[in-house]
Amino acid sequence: MFSRSWAVYASFLFPVAVRAAAQYDLVKEYAGESFFDEWTFYNNIDNLTHGDVNFLGNIDAFHNKLAYTNDAGNAVMRVDNTTQLKFGQKRNSLRLSTKDQFTVGSVWVADLLHVPYGCSVWSAFWSSAPTWPVGGEIDTFEAVNQDPLGHMGLHTNPGCTHSSNAVQSSTLINSTDCSTEANNNQGCIISNPNPASYGQAFANAGGGVYVTEFAIDGISIWFFNRTTLPSSLQGNVSTIDTSTLGIPVANWPADDCQVNEFFQLQEIVFDITLCGDYAGAASVFYQTCTGVCYNDWVLGDPSHYDTAYFEVSYLRVYGQPGELTVLQPSSTRRSAELSCLSMVGAITLATGSLLAIIWAL
């Protein structure tokens, strides 16, 4: 009885993956004054990647102007760049994730005008299953310190790898094992070869647009700067066809990483931490920066973080026509519970009727 109820619940939360399709329709948009309305702010220290930050809740984030909509109508998410800290203190920053979750068979498009950069900075635009690492992680954009390039990657349970048959434009393959248990959770990482994919060069170029396709036959990520942005992504686009976007920068086909095995519903995340397990690791930090990550940067001149911010024109999510793409965890859970309770009631009633018949006989 319990296993049957759980099967109903699980199938509601994690729908059977549908066949991949190139055509997708707009199902969700985060933009303008309402951009921040449907996000969960982490509201804790960085106990996940051990960075030297306090991730603020939404009230403090808005009050301290770390999250706001600027005069151009773009969403800004930033690190505190005004407070002089004392030893032992952490700098305020943000990590926020969508309240909604998105199924296999979806595409998210992010128009980013600026991404955080600088020594000690570790920023990312990514997605994750709520039960990480079960359910996987997709890193659309990630970069640290003064690295000249941004990166893309996957993190999964053991068994998923980057295929040698991947069709992608980047030849900068940093690692091929996606397992969180391999190589200190490096993941299977592809560097974006575009010199304007991160840092000052990204800002000088006016940013760019990232497209992530989360499909049953594989995961693909495209990056376009302003001069290469296809007409099919310009303006208020309600439908996109990923087959018109050309070869993706990074691609993880399902032949070596079954999407419906290693990935579940995804929440989209923006976060900026400082130092931590990646940016603060000596082998990484000293490649592009000097001094001591915490002492000289986090505790140093707060203006170090004048460039540590995201500026986002929009984030749009597209889904396959006629398929369920957007799920709300609270309503999903409640509906599943009611469904299970109804089943329990029906079986109980049927059992009682059967016993009554047997008793009468």
According to CATH, the fold-level topology is: Jelly Rolls
Order of helices and strands: HEEEEHEEEEEEEEEEHEEEEHEHHHEEH
Total helices: the number is 8
CATH class type: Mainly Beta
Largest sheet features:
9 strands, antiparallel
Number of structurally distinct domains: 1
Termini separation (Å)? 27 Å
Q: Helix proportion of residues, in percent?
A: 10-25%
Question: What is the CATH architecture assignment?
Answer: Sandwich
The count of strands amounts to 21
Summarize the structure in short.
The protein has helices at residues 2-13, 58-63, 199-204, 259-262, 276-279, 282-288, 293-298, 329-360, and strands spanning 23-31, 39-41, 44-45, 53-55, 67-69, 75-78, 91-93, 95-98, 101-102, 106-114, 121-128, 137-144, 151-155, 188-191, 208-215, 218-225, 239-241, 250-253, 267-274, 309-319, 326-327. By secondary structure, it is α+β, with helices and mostly antiparallel strands.
